[in-house]
């Protein structure tokens, strides 16, 4: 039976429940709870003899039913993220919302509501606030991790006014930072005073374009940048009338999160209130309880910590322990101190934990669930063996993507599970992809070709009203580049994930690789074009070709650059180190430099990366001079045979 026919037969009877009045729609709970319970009484030999789609039917129905019920409830009761936040604050004002693990500061739901009301009244035009913000305005937040609670109060306060918030990565500098603020249409920049030196570089140009700049402090050492802290603290904490944001709907833009993509400069991804509420339901879908204590050390300018973590905890009613940055030495101590039961990760986090020296108390904790993405199968197994029987729930998705997966069964190594039910709600395909031309393979009719079980294929998901693709703010070209048209039939439109996945016969999905010019390192997407653009400003470099190469024992790929020197110029490792330290985020810095007499290009002058990636930094395959980044010596030093082996065995840390 075909997947589409199977999905239709399974879902039609359940979908009929949507025609019933609201209370009766809760009948979704019957298959959601009943089928998994009944399956426990069936003989294991009988269950294993069933086709895969029947064998996993109880878990699939439970997952889809729970997901639909959550999202239906959100649509009935909430229009915006503020509605959800205020409802939780009214119902449980004394419930602990966030604890700053670095300072020990903590705030309840009621206290956060009061703080955000002060922000709204200090900044809002309706309250004669000094800034005069109103519904539809955009504010850019530029803060370091230790300012988590303050940053969240700004976010909720601005959202109460109906403003949209652009979350800026605090590690970007210069032109990319200026572009990030302006590309979102920001009318104000609210910045951490600790980032004074960075702000002062771009403030004159921002102010020339009409962007007001503020520090969240009592004083300001920068001309034209005003202090805002005292004004907020002096403002009333009386509730903000919802009429202030009367025009906000579930489809209104709520916030912008930036992604490098493949075009070089950061692009603001549009997230509307409906998308925020859907992502906030992820913790509930993973099995997080109201009594849980959630721990994250991921940055708030990413959707993982902000929407899955913070908003997920608000939606579920549990407490979030917010660490300003990840620390191997403090991670488990924090978990024990705060009685943490759920942790959030990216693949690198759990690998770092597994690589740390073993301790007798490794399994002395209350963590029962780990939620995140990017965990390799071998690290997964090592993590469970060392730290105990913790349930791992992998989530696959992207900031701009129109669908995602959750590994709700706990299959080791899988990023999620597909099913006929999920496919009918959010149709997707894995299609053949040519890595040389970097385009999908099409048949004689011009249609893309789905791959079979076990084959790697490009993940594409159908754009529908249920699964829309909101795209990027600004140029329509950026949005159009992420779309594929006429994939399976004339006129259809699919979102191009840029990821190669495989699917086994039971429907479990496995990550294979990323395509194009973007690679992942330290949990971040790195745009090769952005790095190439920055390195081209170095006075002794004539041409630059940036790519990612794998390193044994490390997640993702580390940056490497093949370069051609300007005539008459010599390579200066110290100067290059100083340049990238000031001009690039830490995760985007190339760790290897390969000097070539000429860079290989195609007939259309496109730089060729495939052979360079294959050769990596292998001294036995490369005769060109190679250099490696040495942060301790603050230089690029020649890659010797001893250094090469030290990198391979992990004794030289990248």
Automatic annotation (TrEMBL):
Its EC number is 6.2.1.3. GO terms for molecular function: cholate-CoA ligase activity; long-chain fatty acid transmembrane transporter activity; long-chain fatty acid-CoA ligase activity; nucleotide binding; very long-chain fatty acid-CoA ligase activity. Residues 530-606 form the AMP-binding enzyme C-terminal domain. One of its GO terms (cellular component) is plasma membrane. InterPro entries: AMP-bd_C, AMP-bd_C_sf, AMP-binding_CS, AMP-dep_synth/lig_dom, ANL_N_sf. It comes from the Eukaryota. Its main location: membrane. It catalyses: a very long-chain fatty acid + ATP + CoA = a very long-chain fatty acyl-CoA + AMP + diphosphate; a long-chain fatty acid + ATP + CoA = a long-chain fatty acyl-CoA + AMP + diphosphate; tetracosanoate + ATP + CoA = tetracosanoyl-CoA + AMP + diphosphate. Pfam families: AMP-binding, AMP-binding_C. It is a multi-pass membrane protein. PANTHER family: LONG-CHAIN FATTY ACID TRANSPORT PROTEIN (PTHR43107), LONG-CHAIN FATTY ACID TRANSPORT PROTEIN 5 (PTHR43107:SF25). This is long-chain-fatty-acid--CoA ligase. It comes from Vombatus ursinus. The gene is SLC27A5.
């Amino acid at each position: 039976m075909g997947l589409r026919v199977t999905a239709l037969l399974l879902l039609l009877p359940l979908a009929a429940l949507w025609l019933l009045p609201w209370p009766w729609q809760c009948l979704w709970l019957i298959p959601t709870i009943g089928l998994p319970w009944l399956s426990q009484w069936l003989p294991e030999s009988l269950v294993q003899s069933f086709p895969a789609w029947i064998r996993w039917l109880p878990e699939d129905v439970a997952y889809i039913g729970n997901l639909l019920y959550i999202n239906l409830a959100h649509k009935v009761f909430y229009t915006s993220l503020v509605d959800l936040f205020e409802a939780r604050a009214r119902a449980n004002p004394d419930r602990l919302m966030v604890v700053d693990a670095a300072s020990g500061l903590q705030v309840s739901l009621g206290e956060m509501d009061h703080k955000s009301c002060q922000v709204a009244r200090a900044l809002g035009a309706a309250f004669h606030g000094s800034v005069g913000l109103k519904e539809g305005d955009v504010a850019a937040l530029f803060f370091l991790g230790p300012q988590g609670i303050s940053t969240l109060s700004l976010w909720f306060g601005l959202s109460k006014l109906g403003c949209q918030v652009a979350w800026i990565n605090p590690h970007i500098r210069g032109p990319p930072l200026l572009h990030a603020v302006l590309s979102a249409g920001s009318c104000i920049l609210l910045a951490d005073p600790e980032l004074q030196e960075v702000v002062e570089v771009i403030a004159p140009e921002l102010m020339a374009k009409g962007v007001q700049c503020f520090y969240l402090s009592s004083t300001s050492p920068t001309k034209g940048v005003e202090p805002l802290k005292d004004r907020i603290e002096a403002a009333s904490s009386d509730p903000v009338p919802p009429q202030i944001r009367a025009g906000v709907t579930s489809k209104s833009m709520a916030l912008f999160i930036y992604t490098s993509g493949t075009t070089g400069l950061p692009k603001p991804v549009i997230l509307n209130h409906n998308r925020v509420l859907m992502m906030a339901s992820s913790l509930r879908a993973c099995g997080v309880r109201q009594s849980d204590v959630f721990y994250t050390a991921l940055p708030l300018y990413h959707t993982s910590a902000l929407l899955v973590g913070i908003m997920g905890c608000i939606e579920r009613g549990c407490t979030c322990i917010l660490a300003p940055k990840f620390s191997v030495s403090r991670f488990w101590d924090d978990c024990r101190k705060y009685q943490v039961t759920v942790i959030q990760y990216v693949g690198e986090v759990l690998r770092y934990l597994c690589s740390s020296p073993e301790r007798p108390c490794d399994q002395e904790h209350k963590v029962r669930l780990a939620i995140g993405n990017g965990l390799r199968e071998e690290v997964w197994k090592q993590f469970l063996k060392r730290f105990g029987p913790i349930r791992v729930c992998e989530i696959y998705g992207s900031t701009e993507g129109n669908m995602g997966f959750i590994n709700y069964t706990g299959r080791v190594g899988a990023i999620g599970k597909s099913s006929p039910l999920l496919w009918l709600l959010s149709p997707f395909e894995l299609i053949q992809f040519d890595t040389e031309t970097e385009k999908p393979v099409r048949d004689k009719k011009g249609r893309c070709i789905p791959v079979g079980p076990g084959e790697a294929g490009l993940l594409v998901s159908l754009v529908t009203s249920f699964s829309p693709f909101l795209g990027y703010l600004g140029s329509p070209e950026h949005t159009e580049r992420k779309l594929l048209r006429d994939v399976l039939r004339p006129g259809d439109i699919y979102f191009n994930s840029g990821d190669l996945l495989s699917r086994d016969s039971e429907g479990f999905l496995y990550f294979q690789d990323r395509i194009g010019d973007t690679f992942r390192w330290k949990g971040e997407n790195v745009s090769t074009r952005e790095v190439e653009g920055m390195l081209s400003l170095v006075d002794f470099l004539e041409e630059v070709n940036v790519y990612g190469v794998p390193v044994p024992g490390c997640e993702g790929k580390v940056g490497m650059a093949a370069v051609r020197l300007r005539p008459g110029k010599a390579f200066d490792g110290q100067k290059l180190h100083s340049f990238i330290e000031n001009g690039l985020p830490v995760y985007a810095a190339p760790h290897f430099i390969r000097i070539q007499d000429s860079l290989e290009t195609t007939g259309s002058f496109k730089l060729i990366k495939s052979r360079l990636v294959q050769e990596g930094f292998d001294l036995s395959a490369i005769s060109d001079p190679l250099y490696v980044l040495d942060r301790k010596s603050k230089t690029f030093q020649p890659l010797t045979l001893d250094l090469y082996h030290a990198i391979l065995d992990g004794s030289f840390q990248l």
